[in-house]
Amino acid sequence: MTRWLTIVGIGDNGYEGLAPLARQVIDEAEFLIGGARHLAMIPPGASQRKEWDTPLAQTIDWITTLKGRRMVVLASGDPMWFGVGNALLRAVPIAEVLVLPSPSAFSLACARLGWSVADSDCLTLHGRPLAAMNEAALPGQRLVMLSEDGTTPAAVARRLSELGYGPSRVVALEHLGGPRERIVEGVAENWSRERVADLNVVAVEVTAGPMAAPRARVPGLPDEAFLHDGQITKREVRAITLAALMPLPGKMLWDVGAGCGSIAIEWLRAERSARAVAIERNEKRAKLIEANAAALGVPLLTVCRGEAPAALAGLPAPDAVFIGGGLTIPGLLETCWQAIRPGGRLVANAVTVESEARLLDCRARLGGSLTRIAISRAEAFGEFSGWRSLRPVTQWTAVKP
Q1: Given 66, 90, 97, 182, which residue has the most CB atoms within 10 angstroms?
Q2: What is the DSSP letter of 318?
Q3: Residues 359 and 348 sit within 8 Å (Cβ to Cβ)
Q4: At 256, which helix (H) or strand (E)?
């Protein structure tokens, strides 16, 4: 099969800024698909033009029905970097697609600022919650972010100030690579422009102010980093639990009986491409999970309200499952074990004798390893300090064959 579909990345310099091959495939196309802004950049021709439908999937389905016709999709910059190319290539094999990228907005922004792309954290806030940047804002980090619209730089500046990073340098780069290119620069806590051009990239050099509280991505955030009602896997145990769960790219976690969501949230912070569902029956705790996920920069965490095991029906199959409570609920462990993909991991923590008995039985039937976790913390007792022991935790870890 010849490559009937071409995805052309186009910059703000339009048709004239494209390479000869890209202009040739556009000139010879039977169908030209793109947003109104991109289509307006292309000179009149014989091709039939179509703007994207809402939702985007409708147009992708339409494209696949015309397989074999000469079709060109216009995209911004590099179509494979937060672009439509990723969605198209889930529907059309790469053997049938030619991708012709232009410089990405990230590359252009770093070129203007003299930054290394490899050493910058490149994110998108387009169509995503602003809270997604909370996890990335770390002292000394350089952020380059695709904006939702002209209000994004001001929103970023406000959020940085709220997080204690008011001294950070903020740069809005408008219409990169085009004749209307302009750079607006300032400091987050003094940012005064409520709006810039809608087509912009916002770059940040993160600098901590005196009130900043940096949160490392290494599992084991302080307990006070989470809103909770006491139902939380304690910091030391949480770090050990995350190590046992092994967050890996693209993998799905079920956090069953999630409490305040600390395990699922740290799973997502440890690996950005991972996914997670927090299952929680208590509505107040479910709201705490959502608030914690936003505050700690993983607002796309899915919260499933309901009681396991019934609430697990219909959820995406997990690669890892954590059970922090409810081990004595009939059928819960068995349902989770059956749901895990082959090679996936189940980690369960028990603090009661009855729950521990369930783990001993599971180990006898399914194998795996048992670990006893005993943590003591130093506390003040009058003029002196002493050790206060947390309740011991028995942890069972098993890998499904």
Answers
A1: 97
A2: P
A3: yes
A4: strand 252-256
Beta-strand runs (E) in 5-154: 5-10, 31-34, 48-51, 71-76, 97-100, 121-124, 142-146
Residue 372 CB neighbours (<10 A): 9
CA distance 121 to 114: 14
| Residue % of the chain over a pLDDT of 70 | 100
Q: How far is Cα 98 from Cα 225, in angstroms, rounded to an integer?
A: 46
Q: For 223-239, write each residue's pLDDT tens digit.
A: 999 999 999 999 999 99
What are the tens digits of pLDDT across the range 148-193? 999 999 999 999 999 999 999 999 999 999 999 999 999 999 999 9
Token pair belonging to 153:
């730089």
Residue 1 has pLDDT above 70, yes or no: no
Q: List the beta bridge partners of residue 371.
A: 395
* Alpha-carbon span 55 to 45, nearest angstrom: 27
| Tens-digit pLDDT profile for residues 50-106 | 999 999 999 999 999 999 999 999 999 999 999 999 999 999 999 999 999 999 999
What percent of the chain lies above the pLDDT cut of 90?
A: 99
Which of 50, 74, 72, 66 has its CA nearest to residue 6? 72
pLDDT score, position 365: 95
Find tokens 């809270």 and name the residue: 131
What is the rounded CA–CA span in Å between residue 223 and residue 242? 15
Residues 6+ apart with CB under 8 A from 12: 175, 176, 177, 178, 179, 180, 181, 199
Alpha helices in 127-226 (DSSP H): 152-162
Of the candidates 141, 146, 251, 285, which has an alpha carbon nearest to the alpha carbon of residue 202?
A: 146
Cβ atoms 251, 319 nearer than 8 A: yes
Contacts of 126 (CB under 8 A, 6+ apart): 82, 146, 147, 148
What domains, with CATH codes, occur in the chain? 5-102 (3.40.1010.10), 106-205 (3.30.950.10), 223-399 (3.40.50.150)
Do 310 and 279 form a contact (C-beta atoms < 8 A)? no
267 is written with which tokens?
A: 């799973």
